[in-house]
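Two proteins were folded this term; both appear here.
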Amino acid sequence: MFLVNLVPLVLLVGVLFGSGVDTAEQTNELRDAIVTVFDKMVEYSLKDDTQSLIKLFHQNATIMMGGLPPVIGHEEIRTLLEILPEKASDIKCILKVVEPMDECADFVYVAIHFEFYNELREKYMDGNGVDVFRKTGDGYKFYITMFNKLNQQTSDSSDSG
């Protein structure tokens, strides 16, 4: 369990201290590629298209949701998606940070805020997340996803450190 939590920290440190790509054009292209993945995620979520959603995740992807154990790999992610069907009529993903983690942008760090709206256009849930994308022959895939709804208690929120 310690290693599951250590990997995202190590990847985040890499983003903060060593991004090798710094041209505006490359940054915009990278951002556009990541936005496209999020747009597909929203589209497939709203259609409850689990099969298409799974294809957006790397085969060894990990999802960490506040208060729940990590979900790892396509089969566990499929199970999660099937037991948590999307009930929103709209989802907004606001990308706050999109940064390459290495010179070739094989890994990309994303900080995101998400908002879920019902049919009356009322926001009923929002939260923040951190994603690490991994470049594949098929484009970028979700590799590590961590998120927590705002004001949600996590299983270890009472721990002091």
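Next, the second protein.
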Amino acid sequence: MNQIPTAIQAELRQWLPAVAEWRYLDAGNTSNYLFTGDGAGDRYVLRVNAGDDISFGVDRKQEDQVLQLIAGQDWAPDIIRNDIDLGFCLMRYHGLPAADVSITAPVVLRALHALQQTASGPWFDYAHLFAGYRYRLQQLPQALFELEQLHMHLQRLPDDRCLIHQDLHPGNVLVADGRMVIIDWEYSGIGNAWLELANVQHHWHFSMPQLQQLPVCRRYPTDMVDQYLQQAKICNQMLARLWYLARE
């Protein structure tokens, strides 16, 4: 899709008449459709949501609740309008990913610290997710076996729940004019903190002293932190494989 649906165009003309033209934005590895437009001295990004067949595991209402929870944080995106019914999210332009991931490391740690102190909000429903996988992968016995293995590995993790992003990688941390913003909260919710920690550690390679500044890691000795990170890493690898299989 490289054109904005007619119903969304009509809504944008009312909400943001200063933008005369929207241009398709090829953002690489994304399931949604992105457009950018300029007007009134500002730049905007429009996300047209992909269908459920492509964006497996996404809960738009849950994402909207999380965006409201984090609003006001300096690393949160500036959302102008998130219209679940029409299927779009309008936000300010927040730049591009940094070429050097070390630049974004401080804001990632700061965001994790805040998120790990947030235990109220929409819960990520792992049982519902697994049921969806079983339905989509019912013709793939090996995938179903891996799904059961994943469930077993998840049970070995401490049940440390907090608000998590669940897709936090360098491509989702944008930089513009000295400000760093974390985008793409589609899979967020109250979930297992260790899955987030293992994913972040895979990309940013934080030291153990840095990790132990975080509320969840402070509860455990360093050897246990390392053990749980390794266990969560296995879970993330399985989740990634199953997600790609479910979309095929």
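Residues 57 and 129 are 6 Å apart (CA to CA). The domain at 6-93 is CATH 3.30.200.20 (Phosphorylase Kinase; domain 1). These notes refer to the second protein only.
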